[in-house]
Design a protein that fits this description.
2 domains, 3-stranded antiparallel sheet, single chain, mainly alpha
């Protein structure tokens, strides 16, 4: 047994090197190449370019506060990309209840709604990461009059622009239809609703 030990060690080292090359190098490089060909945009962060510069990603929300823009979901960290987190407050936590009520009042006032009108839950609550870039179609359509007035646009044209940019469910069954806030706001800046 001791006589065969050096040859077994050499075999183990060879096998380890073969597996390291196959699983660590060949597989990694091969999969990266396939993904870059098949899913180029997604593999590179789904970046949005404008005039040769990166202005954002379809995967990461940004804060828009001016009336001329659609506004996205609440972010517990103010969309600070260096620190992703949710509030971790439970549904019975009074701080969360008060913040949601305040956000609902603010949304109603900003968008010309009545004090008891229903507000879509996605515009007053945040997701766990604090960077959700999407809102529901209903949330986007409730903001049409405010954005159209701030930009001097016909609300029906803005509504059509939003409807054109509604993304469907994954495989037609998973998730909800959504609107990417950054995509719509960039389209507005490009004059696509005019």
């Amino acid at each position: 047994m001791l006589k065969s030990l050096p040859s077994e060690i050499v075999q183990a080292i060879r096998l380890t090197l073969v597996f390291a090359v196959v699983t660590g190098l060949i597989y990694g490089v091969g999969m990266t190449g396939i993904i870059q060909v098949l899913f180029h945009d997604q593999a590179n962060g789904s970046l949005i370019m404008k005039n040769g510069q990166i202005v954002g990603s379809t995967l990461i929300g940004q804060q828009f506060s001016a009336d001329k823009y659609l506004q996205g979901r609440y972010s517990a960290n103010g969309y600070d990309a260096s620190n992703s987190y949710g509030s971790n407050l439970g549904p019975s936590n009074q701080a969360l209840i008060d913040r949601v009520a305040s956000s609902a009042r603010t949304f109603r006032q900003a968008n010309g709604m009545g004090p008891n009108d229903q507000v879509p839950v996605d515009v007053v609550t945040g997701d766990f990461s604090g960077f959700d870039p999407n809102i529901t179609e209903a949330s986007a359509l409730l903001q049409v009059n405010r954005v159209a007035q701030a930009r001097g646009l016909d609300p029906s044209k803005l509504r059509a622009l939003i409807e054109k940019r509604v993304h469907g469910r994954i495989l037609w069954i998973f998730g909800e239809q959504y609107v990417n806030v950054l995509e719509v706001n960039l389209a507005l800046d490009n004059g696509d609703a005019g």
